[in-house]
Write a structure and sequence with these properties.
- It is a single chain.
- With 369 residues, the protein is an alpha/beta fold.
- Among the domains are: 2-65, no CATH class; 115-196 and 217-235 and 274-366, no CATH class.
- The protein has 13 helices and eleven strands.
- The chain has helices spanning 2-21, 46-63, 67-81, 105-110, 117-135, 149-152, 169-177, 187-194, 209-226, 250-254, 317-320, 337-343, 356-359, and strands at residues 90-92, 98-100, 140-146, 183-184, 239-247, 262-270, 277-280, 292-296, 304-309, 326-331, 347-353.
- It has a seven-stranded mixed sheet with strand order 4-3-11-9-10-8-7, sandwiched between helices. A two-stranded antiparallel ribbon has the order 1-2. It has a two-stranded antiparallel sheet with strand order 5-6.
- Helix 11 links the parallel strand 9 (304-309) and strand 10.
- The longest helix is centred in the first third of the chain and has 20 residues, at 2-21.
- The chain starts with a helix and ends in a 10-residue tail after the last helix.
- The relative contact order is 0.13.
């Protein structure tokens, strides 16, 4: 009996390596929301030889035989059996919602630490300098903060996460710069629309088409106050609302359950033809999360735009791009005067997600006086 147990134990622990030697890769890049380690290469240099053991260890951790299956089984047991999230980066909420727990998202939800007077002054200086610099070049400026899912659906956050303060950093910053006249608060429109439909994905950190559309409308209205020849925002009558079964989002990937969980995607299908096309990078889709993405409307005399953004703008790109002959989307939080000078836009839109007010500090010195 002991011999049989020993044989069984050895068979089990050697099975993953045997699968690798047989040519089976245990990784499933689609199932996890991260870049898996690549197999290191030996190129004859001492550096490659020295770094090979650590690189191979990282590769094996991500690719050993049956790894993705074991990760999925582990996630299934913890989520469906024990009722807890399989990942520390994901919070299991109510009504089928999952919430992001990393990148200061929990701190932002709980309002654990208000911005100091010095931090608010630095923010005001940064955006005021950007405004002055743009005004001197007759370029309009619009600043917006995208709310995280936990802002709109705080009732679905676990009761174990207690809010410390009553005022968010978003509230503080928008109040501090309101008198400058270029900020737009997209939250009132989102809260009003929330009463009639779901605006954020359940298994993803981001809003769906319908949430992105509400934010887009608020931003374009603000743009048109400064650049009147920008066309009016599209309305919901321009779209057919549809609900389709779709693959789950980034939060499901963080739990290793992208192939297990599904998403009901509440999309908006345009009833009239969209004219804007992606020209950089070639072959990309408007919603692809590219670091530098450019759309154009061929032959259009419409104004031009530069948009400093993060991932929350990705879902807005198909909407925003219809208003500009050329729109340049740069994935960065800070203002980039050199990019603006190269592009000669009529308007600059700057957006960042609310939780980044914890980890990001703007640099006023990047804007020339």
């Amino acid at each position: 009996m002991r011999a049989l147990l020993v044989i069984l134990f050895v068979a089990v622990i050697t099975l993953p390596v045997t699968a690798n030697l047989a040519g089976r890769d245990g990784a499933d890049p689609h199932a996890e929301n991260r870049q898996l380690a690549a197999l290191p290469r030996l190129d004859g240099t001492w550096a490659s030889l020295r770094n090979y053991p650590a690189g191979f260890s990282a590769w094996f951790d991500d690719h050993f035989g049956f790894r993705s299956t074991l990760v999925r089984w582990s996630g299934d047991v913890r989520l469906f059996g024990l009722g807890v999230s399989p990942s520390r980066a994901v919070i299991k909420g109510g009504d089928g919602f999952f919430f992001y727990a990393d990148d200061d998202a929990v701190e932002d939800y709980a309002n654990v630490e208000p911005m100091t007077d010095a931090a608010l002054a630095n923010w005001r200086m940064a955006v005021a300098r950007a405004q002055r610099w743009l005004d001197a070049r007759h370029i309009a400026y619009v600043f917006a903060i995208a709310p995280d899912k936990h802002v709109l659906y705080d009732e679905d956050m676990p009761e174990t996460i207690v809010r410390v303060g009553t005022v968010s950093r978003t509230d503080q910053l928008l109040t501090a710069i309101r008198d400058l006249g270029f900020s737009v608060d997209v939250r009132p429109g989102l809260f009003a629309a929330k009463a009639t439909e779901r605006l954020y994905q359940r298994t993803d950190t981001h809003w769906n088409d319908r949430g992105a559309f509400v934010a887009y409308q608020a931003i374009i209205r603000a743009v048109r106050l400064r650049v009147p020849n920008v066309p009016p925002e599209w309305t919901r009558d321009d779209f057919e609302p549809v609900a389709v079964d779709a693959e789950s989002g980034d939060l499901a990937g963080m739990m290793g359950l992208r192939r297990v969980l599904r998403e009901e995607n509440l999309a908006l299908v345009p009833r009239r033809m969209r004219r804007a096309v992606v020209v950089t990078p070639r072959g990309a889709r408007p919603t692809d999360e590219e670091g530098f993405l450019v759309t154009e409307i061929p032959g259009s005399p419409l104004p031009r735009a530069v948009i400093f953004r993060d991932s929350f703008v990705s879902q807005m790109v198909p909407f925003l791009s219809e208003h500009f002959s050329r729109a340049v989307y740069a994935w960065q939080n800070d203002f980039d005067a050199a990019l603006v000078e190269r592009e000669h836009p009529d308007v600059v839109i700057q957006e960042l997600v609310g939780r980044h007010l914890y980890g990001f500090t703007p640099s006023p010195e990047l804007v020339p006086e």
